[in-house]
Amino acid sequence: MLRDVINIISILLGLLIFLFVAYIGFSNLNKDLSQYSYYENLIVTKEVKTSDNDSEIFSLRLKEVNNEFSYYRISEDYNDLQNSIDIGDRIKIFYDSNADEKNPNSEIIQIEKNGKILLAASEHKTKYIILFIIGILSVTYMLYLGYRYLRKKSIENTIPPIF
């Protein structure tokens, strides 16, 4: 009986968590570039630095702006940005202004220089496409586990093997 309650709770909890993950991915997919804040000014500093969780991020500051702007790539390869942006260049940055005490940097969405896009917003959206797909696949798996449990009254493992 206790095992049945634990299985049902874990399936429902998994459904809620993965629905939330899919929702985050989907809501950010629908954001248009005009919904983000932007600055246009001269670059004061640019660097690739190590974040608190030992990942390399591309970071820069603009003149007369207190925020630091950063961008993370899974590959941690920022050579294209390093080579195309110089200190003193005038750029336009679209950014997500959800900075907080834990993460004081504003996330870069798109960078433009002289009307040319150096970092496209589509690269940022790819992260959310992946998040949405993972969420939907996980919800599907949790629904399958629930169906299987209701039909057979047994589940070997509620945690997917990929986790």
What would you say this structure looks like, in words?
It is a single chain. This protein has 163 residues and is an alpha+beta fold. It has a domain at 35-120: OB fold (Dihydrolipoamide Acetyltransferase, E2P). It is 40% helix and 27% strand. Strands 1-2-3-5-4 form a 5-stranded mixed β-barrel. Helix 1 packs antiparallel against helix 3.
Short description:
The protein has 163 residues and is α+β, with helices and mostly antiparallel strands. The protein is 40% helix and 27% strand. Strands 1-2-3-5-4 form a five-stranded mixed beta barrel.
Distinctive features:
single chain, 163 residues, alpha+beta, OB fold (Dihydrolipoamide Acetyltransferase, E2P), five-stranded mixed barrel, 3 helices, 6 strands, elongated
Tally of individual helices: 3
- The low-pLDDT segments are none
The percentage helix is 40-55%
CATH fold group of the domain at 35-120: OB fold (Dihydrolipoamide Acetyltransferase, E2P)
Distance between the termini: 26 Å
Largest sheet: 5 strands, mixed, barrel
Q: What structural class should be given to the helix and strand makeup?
A: alpha+beta
Global outline:
elongated
